[in-house]
Amino acid sequence: MEEQQQQHLWWQTDVIYQIYPRSYQDSNGDGIGDLQGVIQRLDHLKWLGINAVWLSPIYPSPMADFGYDIADYTGIHPLFGSLDDFDQLLNEIHSRGMKLILDLVPNHTSDQHPWFLESRSSRDNPKRDWYIWKDPLPDGLPPNNWLSVFGGSGWEWDDQTQQYYYHAFLREQPDLNWRNPEVQQAMLDVMRFWLDKGVDGFRVDVMWHMIKDSQFRDNPVNPDYQSHMATYEQLYPVYSTDQAEVHDIVRQMRDVLDQYDERMMIGEIYLPIQKLMMYYGIDGKGAHLPFNFQLLSLSWDAQLIAGAIDQYEAALPPTGWPNWVLGNHDQPRITSRVGVQQARVAAMLLLTLRGTPTIYYGDEIGMRDVPIPFEEVQDPQGLNMPDKNLSRDPSRTPMQWDNSEHAGFTTAKPWLRLARNFARENVLAQKNDPFSMLTLYRRLIELRQQEPSLMIGNYVPVHSDNQVMAFIRQAEGHPGFLIVLNLSHRPCYVKPKHGPLKGTIVLATYPELEGGTIEETISLAGDEGIIVRLSS
Ligand code: GLC
């Protein structure tokens, strides 16, 4: 085991855990999570078996997009603490043998960032070209039809200098001009600042947005647009995103990382598989892990999902390491998408697939999307398109630690309301319950970390139909594992065509099955998933 693992790096063998810092743990009684709070909870993560933490942005920010609008790339927002708190956090993480991944947001800054304040001050300011400024069309209209992801035009008129600037997200988040070498150098310096401190990697925000068409051509109309969809989807963003030149930028970032020891970069990229694969870079010199978001959007159908896994496995470049995600701070939680029963099956899928899993905070206790009353909505995406139910607040609610007044998250009123059921569903209540989601997650992670076949072994599809999927994970010289997952609520049978397979069930979504052996035809109840240690 030691020897095989040594050929793999930490970001291949560890389980990554995403913390949304506003919602994890408040230490100073202001209702908002902070860095000292995260430090207090590191032992929970260690106990869970987590070895790498990704922190959503903690930098100074006017918070128009809750930290994804950055006003200073090398500072810490006072809400979250200070640089000293950060150094302490990094230390505490490293001393537990864990890694820290920071969020890097290179596509855009806050409109309050000094770079933008300078850039907008006059047309001949040296930083004018750091952002994307364009003249209006002769009739005064924006330079092209590009839309903002958060609704409305992507162009904002600046009265003082009589030009438009481009913002893929909020008008408070102007896009940087990545064709400008000074911008490139400035952002690579930001990376060096954190790498010099010892940060282990970055999750790079909207990587596929970073370079736009040099001719600024209009995006084509999406003929499949329907009114319930976000207004941004009216067009195909073919000229505003995923331009060939982005790969040169990613390569530059990679070169910086490669000057350090074992640092890594995850790319946030919502693209179809073939395009996603390009982000691994030529000769694997791009992003280490271009986020694979397929499980966030596919219908919960065994055949569909098995097929998507195969497509992904087949499309991976030879050196490309896979990864899987069930949720993040922009998406509905898995429990709300597939239901509590299937969320257990989903956990087993995430933690038995080949490739690095990323767990979204709270999913380990089966947190659900929390209904936020209309007047309390805070997310700009929700506020800007109020009729489309797109607010991301429901999946960003405070972590449920115990049954005390504010779930152990804070002593004050939390910035976003807690789930109504937090007194029942929380870490403390689930910790010693053998049937809880938390126990399932912990045991899945433990098994994955103990068994080379599950951690680094091959993926071999065995079966899929309209209810159930099955696959084998196998590392050379180690016992293989058969994973059978019933993605439906009804009983099912599976007769693996590779069979008859022999083995013992070592972990199941419902522990009653554990210790049993499998028959030639395996039968499962609805919502059941099993991991079988194969003996032949
Ligand atoms: C990414 C972030 C999201 C943010 C957006 C703009 O998609 O995950 O939360 O709103 O970028 O920065």
UniProtKB/TrEMBL annotation:
Q: Which keywords has UniProt assigned to this entry?
A: Hydrolase
What taxonomic ancestry is recorded? Bacteria, Pseudomonadati, Bacteroidota, Cytophagia, Cytophagales
Q: What is this protein called?
A: Alpha-amylase family glycosyl hydrolase
Annotated membrane-spanning segments are none
From which source organism is this entry? Nibrella saemangeumensis
The record ties this protein, via SUPFAM superfamilies, to: (Trans)glycosidases
Annotated Glycosyl hydrolase family 13 catalytic domain residues? 18-396
Q: Return the InterPro entries for the record.
A: GH, GH13_cat_dom, Glyco_hydro_b, O16G_dom_2
* Similarity remark: Belongs to the glycosyl hydrolase 13 family.
Stretches for region Disordered: 378-404
Look up the domain of life of the source. Bacteria
Q: Which GO terms describe its molecular function?
A: hydrolase activity
Q: Name one Pfam family in it.
A: Alpha-amylase
